[in-house]
Amino acid sequence: MERDKVKGMLWGLIVGDALGSPIQFTDKDNHPWITEMEYCPVFDVPAGYWTDDGSMAMCIMDSFVRKSGYDINDVAETFVRWLKEGYLSSIEGRAFDIGNATFASLSKFSETGSLVNGEESSQGNGSIMRFAPSYIVSRSLNRPEIVREVSDVTHASNRVRETCDVLALILDLHMAGGRSCYGPGAETPREKVPNYGWCVDSLNAAMWAFNTTNTFEEGMIAAVNLGGDSDSIGAIYGQIAGAYYGFDAIPERWIKAVKTWKDIDALIEKFLDAVERKSVFPKVLDLIRQTKKVYCSHIQRELGLGYNQASRMMDWLKEEGYVSLVENDKEVLDEEGRSFTDAYKINWAKF
Ligand SMILES: [Mg+2]
Fold first, then answer.
1. Exposure of 249 by Cβ count < 10 A (0-12 exposed, 13-18 middle, 19+ buried)?
2. I want to staple 152 with a disulfide (CB 3.0 to 4.6 A). Which of 10, 111, 156, 172 is the partner?
């Protein structure tokens, strides 16, 4: 998966949550117009504090990094740690902006260990506001069921599952370089755009902002200023637009205004490395087993990877002792006659 797009999806989510939070619960035209991170009177927190949307997304990433893979039970336990101890909350030690369905579901998980919680009537946007990490894991490991499993922990509703599927298809298209036009567009005037927390409404609101604008920034401003469930609409828009425009299109001033943004960026990088390691690294090992060749351009070409990705694979091969560097003073040529300076010995005992 293209790093710029997946990183855009994750940072888009967090930036949208923090931007929209100060005006959540307001009427559509009864709030200050938001274009920058601002103090949030709803929770009395400074500018750049993320809410439940960002925290729960970080819980999914954190779990994958700690477990070096997908573990739904650990994802649910990490959600509970957020709920009870404020783990990965922007307010030290305290979770806030907790949805009713999420609270009830995580309480049930704590008591019974049930990984499927919620009622059909719980059709809030709690699953799609934190969606991107589960989507990235699902697609990278080629396990489509993961998006519904992570959603089911708090919102076991068919309507929510279907909405997750729609969002996944939108993201698939954006990852593949297309542009979705799902949902309302320019024919729908702003006053008719829903800004509620119903999952279908929130997705439509985010898509309206995406469909009627041409940059990440312009769309985000349109999304959060719908008011209502503005932080989650912003988080949903951020994922959709991040996957389309990529990380580099997100205004740096917004990212750097998020509390502890460097820590969040480090978590995102660690998560994406861990996902890549779980999904791509086994293919590299198979390739070496089959072809008995190990050099960067070979891995890059045979697996269709980018140069940076192939370089990371080489680093991991070295770190894990699958290959070791052979000192040589001769120029070595690869199959295509390009010279490279390092030659590697394959340590077959590791395979
Ligand atoms: Mg929130």
1. middle
2. 156
- Whether residue 341 has pLDDT greater than 60: no
Which of residues 218, 250, 273 is at a domain's end? 273
CA of 66 to the centre of ligand 1 (A): 25
Q: What is the CATH number of the domain that holds 98?
A: 1.10.4080.10
Q: What is the predicted pLDDT for the residue at 335? A: 64
Rounded to 5°, the CA angle 281-286-290 comes to: 150
Do 238 and 224 form a contact (C-beta atoms < 8 A)?
A: no
Greatest extent of the chain over all pairs of C-alpha atoms, in Å: 72
| pTM attached to this predicted model | 0.93
Digit-coded pLDDT (tens) for 28-80: 999 999 999 999 999 999 999 999 999 999 999 999 999 999 999 999 999 99
Residue 251: partners with Cβ closer than 8 Å, 6 or more residues away:
216, 217
Q: Which residues contact 141 (CB under 8 A, 6 or more apart)?
A: 70, 275, 278, 279
From residue 88, how far is each of 55, 79, 91, 350 by CA, in Å? 5, 10, 8, 37
Phi-psi region of 183 (alpha: psi -120 to 50; beta: other; left: phi over 0): left
User: C-alpha distances in angstroms, 248 versus 20, 134, 179, 195, 241?
Assistant: 21, 22, 17, 28, 12
pLDDT digits (tens, 9 = 90+) for 143-202: 999 999 999 999 999 999 999 999 999 999 999 999 999 999 999 999 999 999 999 999
CA 60 to ligand 1 center in whole angstroms: 16
d(CA 11, CA 136): 13
How many structural domains comprise the chain? 2
**CB-CB contact of 5 with 216 (8 Å):** no
Range of the domain at 302: 280-350
Q: How far is the CA of 1 from the centre of ligand 1 (A)?
A: 27
Residues with CB under 5 A from ligand 1 (ion): 51-53, 97, 231
Residue 255: CB atoms within 10 A of its CB come to 20
- DSSP type of residue 341: S
